[in-house]
TrEMBL record, chain A:
InterPro entries membership: ABC_transporter-like_ATP-bd, ABC_transporter_ATP-binding, P-loop_NTPase
SUPFAM superfamilies to which the protein is assigned, alphabetical: P-loop containing nucleoside triphosphate hydrolases (SSF52540)
Similarity comment text for this entry: Belongs to the ABC transporter superfamily.
Organism: Leeuwenhoekiella nanhaiensis
Protein name, entry field: ABC transporter ATP-binding protein
Pfam name, any one: ABC_tran
GO molecular function, one term: ATP hydrolysis activity
Domain ABC transporter residue range list: 4-227
Top-rank taxon, per record: Bacteria
PANTHER family attached to this UniProt entry: ABC TRANSPORTER ATP-BINDING PROTEIN (PTHR42711), ABC TRANSPORTER ATP-BINDING PROTEIN NATA (PTHR42711:SF5)
TrEMBL record, chain B:
Listed transmembrane segments: 12-44, 65-88
Superkingdom assignment: Bacteria
Keywords: Membrane, Transmembrane, Transmembrane helix
Protein name: Uncharacterized protein
UniProt keyword annotation of Transmembrane helix present: yes
Length: 228, 98
């Protein structure tokens, strides 16, 4: 079992503190759901953990190894090179002009490719260009590619956003199947899906990450007006 | 990683081609070897910025990708210089005429 320990993440934009002493733990086999309003710093936190965004302070500990956050753009990104953390950004990152069956071998080798090629719905889209896929198909493909890489931890930024119900269900099922071997941090405004999937929930308000156990606490935190 | 190299080098070659009228053939090769990769990177960052995340997830940092591509193109440029030299000599000797 692997453990990701995040401590004292501090991020300011000018005089404004976006993340203030953020800390949490994530074990493989668990899904952590993070809720928060737009601009609360969820995506910034994920990028800092992945090593593509700088921060004022903070560090990660994974399996007895320490990884300080990048404090400036010249700082080497040890997190990316360690391949301990996979990250699904909000936006599509696959080359639009490439065919799906050409993209898959760039990510996975040998028989591992079958995990994507033989996943539900994939045979139908394998021959198409990435740019021709629907939003749901593309997001599903991206989740499959990143999820099947060897990282013990996975950060997912809005995996369900703008995704049609059919593919939302497929992504949901895939993430449940991944849970056995990975620790997953997920954030999305489709809060019902995140709530259902996650074992632990936290809400990010005023730069602080606070644990919650009841949906009503999202109202108190100013994230929801009511529960539908 | 090869796709990244191909994408950057495409823009680097394009920049080198455009520089021929100003720098000449030899100069264009030098432009390719030294300035081609940074210019290619600028173009890549403009047109394919999000694709970096695919490489990051496979363990390639931006620094690694850039340095590798620059190094290869820098090492390739003397070979290109030699090729240009040979082709120009052959043209000079009339060997490549009809």
């Amino acid at each position: 079992m692997a453990l990701l320990k995040v401590s004292c993440i501090q991020k300011n934009f000018g005089a404004k503190s976006i993340l203030d002493e953020v800390h949490f733990e994530l074990k493989t086999g668990k899904i952590l759901g993070v809720f928060g309003r737009n601009g609360s710093g969820k995506s910034t936190l994920l990028k800092i953990l992945f090593g593509t965004q700088t921060a004022e302070a903070g560090r990660l500990k994974m399996n007895e190894s320490y990884y300080p956050v990048r404090k400036n753009i010249w700082h080497k990104s040890r997190i990316i090179e360690s391949q301990q953390i996979g990250y699904l950004p909000q936006f599509s990152f696959l080359p639009k002009g490439a065919k799906v069956w050409d993209v898959i071998p760039q990510y996975l080798k040998g028989q591992e490719q079958d995990l994507v090629f033989q996943a539900p719905r994939m045979p139908k889209i394998a021959g198409r260009k990435v740019g021709e896929l629907s939003m749901g198909e593309r997001r599903y493909l991206e989740v499959l590619l990143i999820g099947n890489l060897d990282h013990p931890f996975l950060l997912l930024d809005e995996p369900f956003s703008m995704v049609e119900p059919l593919f939302k269900d497929l992504i949901h099922e895939f993430l449940v199947s991944l849970k056995a071997k990975k620790g997953i941090l997920i954030t999305d405004h489709y809060y019902h899906d995140v709530w259902q999937l996650s074992d632990r929930k936290m809400v990010l308000t005023s730069g602080k990450l606070t644990p919650i156990t009841e949906l009503e606490e999202l109202i108190k935190a100013g994230y929801l007006r009511s529960i539908n | 990683m090869f796709k990244f190299y191909k994408d950057i080098t495409f823009y680097a070659l394009l920049f080198a081609l455009v520089s021929i009228p100003l720098a000449g053939l030899y100069g264009a090769v030098v432009v390719f070897g030294i300035f081609g990769t940074p210019v290619g990177l600028l173009m890549y960052s403009y047109f394919h910025k999000h694709e970096f995340y695919g490489y990051y997830n496979r363990g390639f940092s931006r620094r690694y990708l850039i340095l590798r591509t620059w190094m290869v193109n820098f090492l390739v440029s003397p070979v290109l210089l030699l090729l240009v030299f040979i082709i120009l000599k052959l043209i000079g000797f009339g060997a490549l005429k009809g």
